[in-house]
Amino acid sequence: MENRKAVRDIVTFQNEFLDALKIFRKGPKIKGHKTAHCFLPPTDKNEKLDTMLCSAYVGDVARRASALDIALHTVQVSVGGETATHAVCEPLGLDTPQRMYSVSKTVTGLAIGLLAGEGALSLDDPIAAHFPEMAPVHPWLEATTIRHMLAMRGPHRSTTYKRTDGGWLESYFRVRPTHPPGTVFTYDTSASYVLAALTERLTGTSLPDYLRPRLLDPLAISPDLRFLTGPEDISHGGSGLICTPRDLLRLAHLLLGDGVHDGVRLLPADYVRAATRPQADTALQTWGASLREGYGYQLWLPRRGGWLMFGLGGQIVYGDPARGLVVVVTADSQACASGDQRLLDDVLDGLVRPLADRLDAGVADDAGSRNGSSTAVTLSWPAPRHDAVHARPVSGRYVNVVDGPGPAELVLKLTDVGGRLRGVGDQAATGGWDVELRYDRPVRTRVDDQPAVVTAGWTGGDTLDVRCALLGDDLTTWRARLAWAPDGSLAVQSQVFGESADEAWNFHAAYRPAP
What is the DSSP letter of 20? Predict the structure, then answer.
């Protein structure tokens, strides 16, 4: 700054003010700066400042996520088994079920660990021996063990099935392997699917039904926990888990406690220890530095230590047993390129790291949770920037200029504060469009027969942007831009992001006012 005296005056005032509060501890001297002061938070267990700082870290992550058009659904932070802060984006909450994608792999792995503890299998069993009907198989598949599959060191370079094709289970044994098992790390969702199939074959029941009395009920996991199924009606153990964020926190606490809950061992100790220790070298991963430190059994081992469950769209469960720290995040980042990895980096660097540093320094505790309370943070849905100056009424029908992509007609009824956008006709995407718009707040509605949240705004003199979060079994984000040309014609750019999203929602089209 140009005015150094003004800066010194501000710093002097800040030092005097913080000193006068009488709640901060004097920090260390700063070498080379005689007048500089360092203040540390209080250590009083009843003081909620640390919880406030924890909430501030959550707020920082939320702001960065919003700037990337990432919808942050929920955040939970616990220390020592007690929640320090949490955040929700209404209408979603900590007890709202949603798909957790690859977090499913960890739950499937726990089922395998339980079966091993019960003597129903050995981790060194060849997987092909449990599916004799698949014989003959390639020698590298004959040599593939359950342990290889848990550690993602199987013989396939990637997932063997195609989502829209039949025979996911059979594909694992029929697709030609690329290398001997146990040699390199290759992330393979089909391996987790086969492990779920193995669980159901050995137990004669579904994956969640097997886990219910052994794990889920003792942890008070929601009765709504379920798995989507593959084409053979097998639980999708690689990506189909649907549960609540609170369920994930309870599972994390169990792993943090070495598989013991309320003094009762629920998971075999040897499995938990092996699952949370390096079993595979992931240094060649291209998904970012956070995932290059190693892999256990259906768990990532990030660079700061601890373990990590990580699912498509930004489903994150991080546990640090050494510090008693758990962070659970649910989100939909699919509208941002590499959004889940960017969100993970932000969570690890902007939330986990400062909390871990404070715990290591002995200046953070589970303040605010000792009396049964925690600090709540309100999250906001990503929304187009709205400039009320540009908002204008529009009413009428617009006809698709060509017999091509997009709805055959658009019906608009817009005011200065919102309105409705409807797509009709033979060329309409599945379910059509019929969305209520408000420029000042999100709208809870249904789109394509799914619960949805819609935000909208006039971002320019002739441009209206619409964003829609579809909250069905497969999280999806739809964005549309309506831009009027000087001649009154209307250009529409539509984008959709989701694993099973209908590609008919991806298009550019032009419309003219109906006669």
Answer: H
What are the extents of the domains in the chain? 4-40, 56-96+244-257+274-382, 97-243, 388-513
**CATH number belonging to domain 97-243:** 3.40.710.10
Task: Give residue-wise pLDDT tens across range 345-398.
Answer: 999 999 999 999 999 988 654 433 444 456 678 899 999 999 999 999 999 999
> What CATH class does 56-96+244-257+274-382 carry?
alpha beta
Same fold, 56-96+244-257+274-382 and 97-243: yes
- Return the pLDDT at 304: 81
Q: What are phi and psi of 124, to 5 degrees?
A: -95, 10
CA distances from 432 to 45, 451, 477, 492 (A): 55, 15, 15, 15
* Residue 409 to residue 421: CA distance in whole angstroms: 11
Contact between 483 and 463 (Cβ < 8 Å): yes
Q: Which fold has domain 388-513?
A: Lipocalin (2.40.128)
pLDDT per residue over 51-93, tens digit each?
A: 666 788 998 999 999 999 999 999 999 999 999 999 999 999 9
Taking residues 319-335, what's their average pLDDT? Answer: 97
Q: What angle do CA 301, 305, 306 make, to 5 degrees?
A: 70
Instruction: Give residue 78's Cα distance to chain centre.
Output: 17
Q: Give me 372's structure tokens.
A: 């049964």
DSSP-assigned beta bridge partners for residue 317: 309, 328
Contact 400, 425 (CB under 8 A): yes
Closest CA to 97 of 307, 193, 240, 213: 240
Note the helical H segments in 429-510.
none
Residues contacting 261, CB < 8 A, separation 6+? 218, 219, 253, 254
| pTM of the predicted protein model | 0.88
